[in-house]
Amino acid sequence: MYYVDPNAFMNWVVAIILGITAILAVATVVVAARRRPHGPALSYLYTLTALFGTFAAVVLVLGLRGRTSGSRPWHFFLDMKYQAKYTNQGGSKFFADGRGMRLPPEGTVPFDGTDYASDAGRHTDPHPDFLAADARYYRGVANPTARETRDGAEVPKGPEWKDGQLVEGYYVGRIPDEAVRRAGGWESLIRRGQQQFNVNCAVCHGTSGRGGTADAAYGIVGAYGLSVAPSNLHADDVRSQPDGQLFATITGGVRNMPAYAHQVRVQDRWAVIAYLRVLQYAHQPPEK
Length: 288
Description:
Layout: H1 6-34, H2 40-62, H3 128-131, H4 135-138, E1 147-150, E2 153-156, E3 160-162, E4 165-167, H5 177-183, H6 186-200, H7 202-205, H8 236-239, H9 243-252, H10 266-283
Antiparallel strand pairs: 1-2, 3-4
Helix pairs in contact: 1-2, 6-10, 9-10
């Protein structure tokens, strides 16, 4: 962003001012030796020399910009340098155990799993929710080693149908039973999915899921003339994706679509997929 190093620039400015101070000091001595003590020229020189000399003294005391030091810096304007906050391994008079660092609240799941080294206290046993140990539920992955080479690149292997049965590839083929169990059944899962779809997805893909852009947009965002239209979720390439792949797309994003991992929790991602399948079925029921 900068064409000139600001530290180097300020150091040059300081050096120039120090040089001017030295020149003024020499000029003051020379003029004082040749003129009357109270001449106007000498008064101006005294004033300028005093001003530049004071600045030079401040610079010499505080040091030049860009120099490093192991000493604690002087803070004349504290701003937000010191805040009322808990630091790592710090104590707390608020909590009964006297520790500032807390375990995650009950019922919450850390995004990257629990950190045993920093949490106050310890877990009696590894909890599958903390460790996100269930790959099918937390990542939509059925067979992590299922890969295939396509166009010279290794990609996740897709599902296959054999003898009328779905054989999962890298991603899970259908919404895991764990998601249905946590929702209390399919009806609750789909109802929750509709609510989350309308909050997080409809703004781009529309309440129907048809996406589009400009005059053909079904979502609000697409109506603003995006260079890449929000996907039509009823297209064959989306309908054919296994549920685990849709889960991965919601989690990590794809192309212009951002990741929703920090906005939509795991259970709600499966709920959105359940509702999306309902929309797809209503738009184009499968052939019998």
